Amino acid sequence: MVAGVALITALGGAAGCSTSLDEARLAWADGEGKLDNADTKYREAMNDPDLGDLAREELRDIYLELGDAADEEGKAIRAEEYYRKALELDPQSEEAYAGLAAALQDLMRYDEALAVATEGWETIKCRNCHRQMAVLLIQRGDAHMQQSRWAEAEADYANALEILPDAAIWLAVVRARYAQKDLEGSAKALKETTDLVVQNDLENRRQYLELRRAVVLLALEQGNVPLADELLDLTPVGVPPEEQIGLAMEVAMEFNEQGEPDQALARLMAIVDAAAAGKLPLTPEQLDLLRDRVATIYATRAKMRLADGDTAGADADIKEALGMRPGEASLLLQEVLLIAGKGELDAAREKLGAVPNSAKGYNEVTAILAALQALEYVESGKLEAAKTELDLAKRSAKELPEVHIATAAYLAKTEPSLYKKEAAALRRSGLVSYPGGTPVRAAEALSELEWSRQQLEGLGSGYAYRAPGIEAQLDALQTKIKAFYPFAVKFFGEPKSTLVFANQGGSELTIELAGRSWKKKTTVAPGDKSTVTLDNPGFFEMTYGDESATFVAEPYTEVTITL
Q1: What is the pLDDT of residue 242?
Q2: Pick from 486, 503, 526: which residue ends a domain?
C-alpha cells in the first residue's frame, strides 16, 4: 500500500532528481490531494519504462484503500467503482476481485457478484473468491426457494456444496428436494448430512430433525415404508433415543390415519415393550401420551372391525382402549355405538346415560341412536314413533348422515298430500308405479340418501362417530326405492322442485304442465334438456306430444325425467 509518499517525494526533490512518479505521489499526497489529478499523474508515470510497474501498483493500492474505506462506510456504489479501477489496473489482484464481488453482493446484484467471484477463482485461484462463490450460491438458492423455483435452488445449493461441504448447505439441499417431492433425493441428502451435524450445533440439529420428520412422512405418503424406517434410524450425534419417541409415535399414528391400525399398534407396542424393559427411559408425559395413542388406535381398529361385522374383535379392542384410558368419554361413546351395532339399542341408551352430556360427541351419538331406533320403527310400521325419534335426532345433530338416512326411510313410507282424485289419477296414468298403488315421497327419500352419501364421503372413514353398518343400510334403502322410482334424483337446497326434462326422441317436444293453481310450458329439442322449477311442488298433469301423464313433484329435489 502507499505509505509516506510525501516524505519520499520531499527526499527526491532535495536530491534534484524528481520523476513522473514523484509528481504523481505529490499529487496524491497520502490522500490529501485530488484523486482525478493523482490518477492522471500516475497513468503518465505508468508510461515510464523504469517506474511504470511501480506506478501501476501504487495506483492500484490507492483504489483498493479507497474501496475498503467506502465499504466500511457502507457506500457500496462507490466501493464498486474503486474496486473496478483496481481490477482494471491489476487483473491478478485477489483483493480487487474479492472487494468487487462483496460490493456487488451488498448492492444485491447477486448474479454479477457470483460472476466476478467465479472469474476470480477460475483465472487467478482467488481463495476469498472461492468462499464468496459458496455464499453467493447459497443466497441465490435461498432467493429461488422464496420464489418456489425448487430445481434452480437445488442446483445452486449443490454447486455450493462442491466448494463448502457443510451441514447447513446439505440441509438446504434436503429442503429443495423435499419441496419437489423428490423422496429418494431428499433421503440421500439427509443421510449425507447426518454425520456433519455435530453435538453442539443446536440450530442445524433442530433443522435436521424437522426435515427428517418431513421426509419420513413423505416416504409414508408415497408408500415407501422401508425407507421411512431407515430414515427413522438416522440420528445425529447427541440425540438420545427418548428424543426420537415423538416422531416414532407420529409415524405410528400416520399408519392409523391410513387405515392400518395393526401396523400402528405394532409400532407403538414396540415402544411400550422397550420402556417396560428399561431400554427406553420415558418421562411421565411421554408415557401418558403413549397410552393415549395406543388407546386411540385400539378405538380405530374397533370401529373398523365393527364395520366388517367382527363384533367380538371390536368389543375386545374397546376394552383394551378403556383399560388404557378408563372412563374416557370418547371411548365410552364408541362402546355405546358398539352395543348399538349389535342391535341392542336399549342397552346402548342405558350405557349412554353414564356419559356426561357435555362430552364431545355426546349429541352425535344421541342422534345416531335415535336414528337407528327410527329405522326400526319404520320397518315395523310405527311411523308416529319413528317421527318422534327423528325429531330427537334432528335436535341433537341434524346434519349427520344417519339422521338423513332414517329420514329417507320415513319419507319412503309416508304419503304426499293429495286429493283422492289426484291419487286415483296417479294410479291410472302416473309416471311412477308405486308399490300397492299408494304414492309415497320417494323422490324426497332419494334426495336425502344422495345428500347422506355425500356427507359420508366428506366425513371420511376416520370420522369418530358412525353407526355400524350404516353404509349398507343406505345402499339397501336406495336399491329398494329405485326398484319402483325410475328417475335420477339429486338433492336441491330449497323447498322447491326442479324438473329436468330430457328429450331422447327424434323431434322437438312441447311439454305442458298443469298443477292445482299453476301452469307451465317448455319446449325441448331432440337430444336436449329443459329445466322447469316449481315454487309450489305437488301433483300435476302433463302432456307431451300425443301422450299424457301425472306426476308428483316433491320439495328439495331435482328430478330428471327422460321422455
Answers
A1: 64
A2: 486
